[in-house]
Specification:
The protein has helices at about 70-80, 250-260, 265, 315-325; strands spanning about 1-5, 10-20, 90-95, 115, 120-125, 130-135, 145-150, 155-165, 175, 180-185, 195-200, 225, 270, 275, 280-285, 290-295, 310-315, 340, 345-350, 355-360, 360-365, 375-380, 390-395, 425-435, 440. By secondary structure, the chain is mainly beta.
Length: about 475
């Protein structure tokens, strides 16, 4: 309790609420436990798994021990003429080889190979038809193969697992060398890599996929150069320029790219990330339409590194943004991806306001001024309260002595119509309270929200009084 005696004081109440659950981690920072039995080092401690090893068999099935003669396998592989699962002229190494029951390559995965592809192009090893695509962007224990593609080559199937992106569709006929996706870190994985295996007749009867690119005897630690070429596949900048390449925060660009739909919705890079009016930007062209899309990051204010996300801006809004001076204008850098606002039109928000279509014309609007009798709420995507620009600013008419917000599980503030995420957002509530009479006053601030993955809440009260204030606390 704070007691005021015969004073007139102005009290500014600042409430900060930080909601962070399931916040993304940069690549190579997600590690799970090994499967049992687990080897130990000389001190009896469990050593960390090397990057690029998934933690458990991908699908958990027991393998079918049906015998296959060496003649059966030889005939199948000779007809397929397998090539290594990445473009020609590139060398990659095996991080986990055949028959590793101490790690994960056993049972149905005993003839699997892990290659150290880090968010790189993955190519079909032979002609075939895409028979299955599973999208699972999660990483960690119990997530299996994550995102993967299965291709039917007739009597045998090839599987490409832990992908970050998929460039083919179910039922699509693909030729050998076709780029079907990009390696990644989805599923039971400790780092970006490609898990590859083949099975007979779509059963869990694995076999050694040899020869590939004329190579036999694949061994863990060995490095191999591909000769896998699709002659009619044009040069594609998705495989020559990486998302976020040139930025010191490349993983933030990759997160924005994936969050907005990846290649299907953004396309391929036109250039490397570079500075533009005080921000870092990378330009893209959407496949098929040529729509100009960009990912922009406010790196100058990103302290600590990674606390301010990168955001996607596109199409007509991006062209209008350029026309008014981009981040050098009064709007500053973007603070949201594009979304559908309250008026039913596309909208992008920025540090100083927002762009939306009003009366069939693109227009800018500043954030509202503070109103007496309201809580001034500033929402931010990410968890940098001090330096990030607001994603949304609202005068909220909560009760005079109570601030309470319940967005519900997995829902965004204002139903997503203000550009704020359902996860990994922060907010600041402010309100001025004028005290004109003596007496005792109690001030409370708190926050609570139900979440699936955990909770981190920071609540602060800041009091601004006068030199005449006398206070006691109890």
């Amino acid at each position: 309790m704070i007691k005021f005696t015969r004073i007139a004081a102005l009290v500014s109440v600042l409430v900060m609420f930080l909601s962070v659950f399931g916040a993304p981690s940069p690549p190579d920072q997600t590690f799970a436990e090994r499967a049992d039995p687990t080897p130990t080092d000389g001190d009896g401690e469990t050593p960390p798994p090397p990057p690029g090893e998934e933690q458990f068999p991908g699908d958990g099935e027991d393998y079918d021990p049906s015998p296959m003669t060496s003649g059966d396998v030889s005939a199948m592989l000779q007809s397929l003429d397998l090539k290594l699962p990445w473009p020609a002229g590139i060398t990659h190494c095996i991080t986990q080889g055949y028959n590793r029951p101490d790690v994960t390559h056993y049972g149905s995965d005993r003839f699997a190979l892990d290659f150290n592809l880090r968010y790189e192009a993955v190519a079909a090893v032979a002609n075939g038809t895409v028979s299955e695509i599973v999208y699972n962007p999660n990483t960690g224990r119990g997530q299996g193969y994550g995102t993967y593609v299965k291709i039917n080559h007739g009597d045998v199937y090839s599987v490409y697992a832990h992908l970050s992106e998929v460039y083919v569709s179910h039922g699509e006929q693909v030729s050998q060398g076709k780029i079907i996706g990009k390696s990644g870190n989805t599923g039971h994985s400790t780092g970006p890599h490609l898990h590859f295996h083949m099975r007979y007749n779509d059963r869990v009867t694995p076999f050694q996929p040899e020869p590939m690119s004329g190579i036999t005897g694949f061994a863990e630690g060995g490095c191999y150069t591909s000769n896998n070429v699709e002659t009619h596949n044009p040069v594609d900048t998705c495989y020559t320029i990486g998302v976020g390449q040139g930025s010191s925060r490349q993983h933030l660009f990759q997160e924005a790219y994936d969050r907005d739909g990846g290649r299907a919705n953004i396309g391929c890079p036109d250039n490397e990330a570079h500075w533009w009016h005080g921000v870092v930007i990378q330009d893209f062209r959407k496949d098929g339409t040529g729509e100009h899309v960009a990912i922009i990051h406010d790196e100058l204010n990103d302290d600590p590194a990674g606390s301010i996300p990168a955001f996607v801006i596109r199409g007509d809004i991006f062209q209008y943004y350029i026309s008014i001076g981009g981040p050098g204008s009064e709007l500053g850098p973007p603070t949201t991806d594009e979304f559908i606002g309250y008026n039913g039109n596309p909208q992008s928000n920025f540090r100083g306001g927002y762009i939306t279509k009003i009366d069939n014309a693109w227009q800018t609007r500043p954030w509202p001024e503070r109103r007496d009798g309201y809580w001034y709420a500033e929402y931010r995507n990410g968890h940098n309260i001090g330096k990030a620009g607001p994603a949304c600013v609202v005068n909220e008419p909560f009760a005079y002595n109570l601030v309470f917000a319940d967005w519900g599980r997995d829902s965004s503030p204002y139903g997503g119509k203000c550009g704020v995420w359902a996860d990994n957002f922060s907010m600041v509530w402010r309100r001025n309270i004028e005290i004109t009479d003596g007496g005792n006053y109690r001030f409370f601030a708190g926050g609570m929200i139900r979440q699936k993955y955990g909770l981190m809440v920071s609540c602060f009260l800041i009091f601004a009084g006068t030199s005449r204030r006398k206070s006691t606390r109890s």
